[in-house]
Automatic annotation (TrEMBL):
Swiss-Prot/TrEMBL keywords: Hydrolase, Lyase, Signal
Gene3D superfamilies, alphabetized: Metal-dependent hydrolases
One Pfam family here: Amidohydro_2
Protein name in UniProt: Metal-dependent hydrolase
Source organism of this protein record: Desulfuromonas versatilis
Amino acid sequence: MSYLLSLFLLCLLTLGAAIARPAKAEELGKETRPLPVIDMHAHIAGIGAGGSGCYVSPGLRDNWRYAIYLKAFGVTREELEREGDRITFEKVSGALEASREVDGAVILALDGVVNEAGELDLERTEVYIPNEFVARETARYANLHFGASVNPYRRDALARLEQAKADGAVLVKWLPAIQRIDPSDPRLAPFYLKLKELDLPLLVHTGAERSFSRADHRLGDPQLLRQPLELGVTVIAAHVATTGRTDGETDFDRLLRLFPKYPSLYADISSLTQLNKLWYLPKVLEHPEIHDRLLYGTDFPLIETGLLGVKLVSPWYFPFRLGWGQMRGISGIENPWDRDVALKQALGFGPGIFTRPASLLKIHRTGEPWHAGPGRF
């Protein structure tokens, strides 16, 4: 154990020596910024309790990750079975209501794998969170917003997109590596054109996928996104393609080449402060040419996920980028969203990233008209 601890500390020292200390972070404050701060990448838990329609495969339920995810949501399997899956929305909304910095979050549905007949195939699906469930529950809370998910291989995919838009969806989410979607498939052109017609951005996981027990990492290659970009779809590359390699290149480098050519391409910074991605954060900060395309997201509940008392996200992983007082102060912030904002600000992400999702997704504060405003990195 002492050897592993020493090795871990050595990695932190090496990382810290490689990057410079940023300027002092600016305060956001809900009352002073022109646009609300929206976490555009948050997940929800569901086991099918209370008629939610959610599904978790036996393989994932038996996986060590499953119990950790439930704990991060602040629920137990027994509580879900007793109260129903809807209890997770109540908990997430309550935590956001207590946040001083974040106004709301986009809660993402997750469609499953589709068979050759264009129907849901639960035998090949790890997690299924229906649009109907997420749309219904987010509508109960002013600070939760509906992020739809439609597998484009569904027989009625276009009708599902129209229904999602009618139900208030602000975007559509894909996780190709587990949904078995090839974004470059020419058969998907009508789906992309419908997205453009409905003004629905497409949030696509890019890079390797390691949150599930099985995945096809080849489908996380950012270069596969050229087709929807060519057709004018607003595409958001989740996690800035951190982790993953294709054809001898990092997926991050493959994503970078797309930004100059496609003005409708964005990326979210969810997961960048995770322990397994520390090396990527300075790479993103070193590319100012993409900073006005970056969007705030947390990948909740991963910002609260931990194992054996060690959290996946912590300010203590940045000892040379942050001062001792900063690390101690940020780690003492109780609210997970406030802690996440403070950490990302201190690491160098400016106000524009935090307010840009509201502008792009046209999300306004309750009772106030939506208005675009200038943001800066």
